[in-house]
Amino acid sequence: MNDLQHEVLQHLQALVGFDTRNPPRAISTGGIFDYLQQHLLGFEFDLVDHGAGAVSLLAVRGTPKVVFNVHLDTVPSSDQWSADPLVMRDGDDRVIGLGVCDIKGAAAAMLACAARTQGDVALLFSTDEEANDARCIAGFLARHGQRFSAAIIAEPTNCEAVLAHRGIASVRVAFRGEAGHGSSAAAVSASALHQALRWGNSALDQFAALQGERFGGLTGLRYNIGRIEGGIKANVIAPSTEVRLNFRPLPSTDPDQVHAQLRQAAAEIYIVPAEYEITFRGPTLPAGDIAGAEDRRLRARDLAEELDLPIGNAVDFWTEASLFSEAGLTAFVFGPGDIAQAHTADEWVLKSQLTTYANHLMRLFQ
């Protein structure tokens, strides 16, 4: 183990020990943020509490034009962990702990490399990525976005620059029926559950019709009806039902058009007008219409090549890089680890990935 890797692992052990699970996102401006500031000597800080446990720290040294972003919050740990998730375990070729892959490993490398270099660097730490509640990034862009021309967002990409990924749209649809006895002929149309099932079938057909679209190595729409909840019992006509779904469009897909089609399908089924609520929408990377997105993708490619970073394939998962792109910054995703390990029990990251990432940062921070 070389000295740089040792320092990265020391920081990572400390960062894993801070409980930043989201939910409940019981995170304050102390704790992990005290640790960061103690180990970023020579930086100027802007620490902001955005409310509801969303906290951001911008650390700047010099006058950089590129900002490196990493989120410190993690998903909750499940009961399938074989040991305490907040205690990092050191194995032969990997380390195990909550957030080591997604994505505290990158934060640890940033701390180690910042201490070893003197170049101009901007680091943005945030705590709301896992909640689909981008207060931190929105606040940063409003306060400091004009200071920077580009952003590199840390997520698990096997140390390759990812230039494109899908957007995300989450939807809640609430159906209203008319309660009654299940023996009634009216149950066929009056049941909110029946309405939800008909609408769900129509939605699946609409999604299937979009599978031929392509952009930047990605093909088709990703979609999932994740939850249907409602009804009372088998012999009672269901008076209400709620459906939760999300879909992940390409930059070539207009999400507003998809929403309009889903709403229209619902309007043809409802007996009582129901609610159609978009609970979260995240843009694609690159953001913009198809022509603008391609231009931004090429600019991100040029930046990655200028920084001598390997370029990887587009990915299906969503990241906050798209928020920077939407704001006009050149943005791509670049971090250690494999997304297959994110959100898993006994989450792990290879030490070799952390070392590769840290070596890139040493060169870039210098």
Give a verbal description of the structure.
- The protein is α+β, with helices and mostly antiparallel strands.
- Helices cover 33% and strands 23% of the residues.
- It contains ten helices and 15 strands.
- The longest helix has 17 residues, at 100-116.
- It starts with a helix and ends with a helix.
Task: Write a brief caption for the model.
With 366 residues, the protein is of the alpha+beta class. The protein contains ten helices and 15 strands. It has a six-stranded mixed beta sheet with strand order 1-2-6-3-7-14, sandwiched between helices. Strands 11-12-8-13 form a four-stranded antiparallel beta sheet, covered by helices on one side. The chain has a three-stranded antiparallel beta sheet with strand order 4-5-15.
Key attributes of the depicted protein:
four-stranded antiparallel β-sheet; 15 strands; 33% helix
Mean pLDDT across every amino acid position: 95
Give the strand order, joined by hyphens, for the main sheet.
1-2-6-3-7-14
Characterize the overall form: globular
Question: CA-to-CA gap between the ends?
Answer: 22 Å
**Quick one: biggest sheet?**
6 strands, mixed
Helix content: 25-40%
Unreliable stretches covering 5 or more consecutive residues: none
Structural class: alpha+beta
What's the order of the H and E elements? HHEEEEEHEHEEHHEEEEHEHHEEH
Q: Which radius of gyration do the C-alpha atoms yield? A: 23 Å
How many β-strand stretches? 15
Strand content: 15-25%
State the helix count: 10
